[in-house]
Amino acid sequence: MPKLLIDDRELEVEEGITVLEAARKAGIDIPTLCYLKDLNAPAACRVCLVQVEGRPTMDASCVLPAQEGMKVYTHTPAVLSARKQMIELLLSDHPFECLTCERNLNCELQRMAKRYGIRDLRLEGARNHFPIDDLSPSVVREPDKCIRCRRCISVCEYYQSAGIYRMVERSFNAVAGPAFNGSLMETPCIYCGQCITVCPTGALREQDSTGRVWEALQDPGLHVVVQTAPSIRSTIGEEFGYPVGTLLTGQMVASLRRLGFDRVFDDCFGADVTVMEEATELMERLERGGPFPQFTSCCPSWVRFCESFYPGLIDNLSEVKSPQQCFGALAKTYYAREAGIDPARIFVVSIMPCVSKKYELLRPEMADSGCRDVDAELSTREFAQMLFQAGIDLRKLPEEEFDSPMGYASGAGVIFGSTGGVMEATLRTVYEWVTGKELDRVEFPEVRSQEYKDAEIQMGEKRLKVAVARGTGEARRLIEAILKGEKEYHFVEVMACPSGCVGGGGQPIYIETNDWNEQVAHRSRRAGGLFDSDRSKEFRKAHHNPSIVKLYSDFLGRPGNDLAHRLLHTRYVSRKLYAPEPLPKKEHKQKVQPL
Predict the structure, then answer these.
(1) Residues with Cβ < 8 Å from 33, sequence gap 6 or more?
(2) Which of 106, 301, 355, 465 supports an S-S bond with 138, CB 3.0-4.6 Å?
(3) Residue 124 pLDDT > 90, yes or no?
(4) Is the pTM of this model over 0.85?
(5) How many CB atoms are located within 10 Å of the residue 454 CB?
(6) Which domains does the chain have, with CATH numbers?
């Protein structure tokens, strides 16, 4: 273990550690902009410069190995001046739009300028200007605000394995973007929004839907209903200073009524519907022997990833719509009938943890009710922005209940927003349908994980082989193992974002750490409130939810019938980009293959 001096403090550190991490372990904060531990360390911003005694120039501490006998200085006048100059160089080619920027007061570059007391620029010169790319339904790129940190490149390539971003051009004209600095619409972008969450500035943001929702709320001819995704109740509090994972379901409902929505519903109801249909589909596959595995289809980014990179697996995707779309289709049919309202007057708004839902609701097949299933989607950040604009403070609101008939959900529907939640919710129903017995242990902790996890679930005398993957990069590795015959499963859950929906691209952006694994852990902690809510529910299985029982008895009939197929099931499109060979067909003679 090498020993070195940092600011005259003797440290003993692990072999191979960088000076930056050694300093942080000693409580010395060296600033960074491009660095994300364990994900991105290109030494591009040069803000982490330090002086090492005996070296003629300063070094970027994020890539400088700590070595025996080093004497490092982190805040000499020369070091502070050099860092300040690096920040000024970034600002000299950055638009001064802080007051109108999406990331105002939550921008790492802005925070760095304040930290180093930059009040004016000594460096002025030419500025780059690139056109804004706003053609994507989900993500907007403003290359003028790019500081070339390469974080978007790393998260897209190494975590999501989509590889959409690259450094385009060179030197002063360099910028991170798709090939030839074109539009995201010309790429197989999966619209997950993870690039937004790691961007230190406002170079990447979601498409703004708040204006359209405000207009709908003011239209007397529209009946505006809102559905809230499971994870929103445990993440919206971060925007109001609550500890991570704080459950604010009742206050969230109250705030939506004060915004002017005619009905406030729970998308966990839609999640329960998805469980009923997806469990039925899995049972049918088990009866006919495949095709296996059945992949979940709740995440539109994962569905698009599969369509683009693995179109040979389209038959393995569950044909059931996501909870957002199931809810929308039922709002314009079942709810319209129950309330006696013309479906054409119903305007459905969803509040979701991701930005890919903006793309999903525009898919041409998402209109099987005769109208567009969902009319507009707000991310968690956009929802918070509307509350700020209206002067509504969650901390001052009483708790209120969701409206009927689509406002009550089981605990299974609530955990959809957490890691392994879709898998666990479905298993609770499938287990009882397969065995004909009530579950002694409702929870399935063996499928809860931040990343990849597999398990074998004993169902009577049979075993169900399942897996859970977080991030499409992990999904790609899992699929490649399946294609090679190294893995075999009956049921696989894939969510594109770290820790599932609680880590979605539309959630509050967390900039308090430059450690990627700690950022993922922070997102995972958001799920705690969801599991607490699940445990407090009277009904914890979708098929026991009385509102779901009423839906099927009064309207749909049974799961998987013709009406359910027309409204709640969908189809997929082969996009044929970078596609490997399709999954080989296998005969499965037994209903559930034993070990």
Answers:
(1) 45, 47, 90, 108, 109, 112, 147, 149, 200
(2) 355
(3) no
(4) yes
(5) 16
(6) 3-92 (3.10.20.740), 128-206 (3.30.70.20), 211-568 (3.40.50.1780)
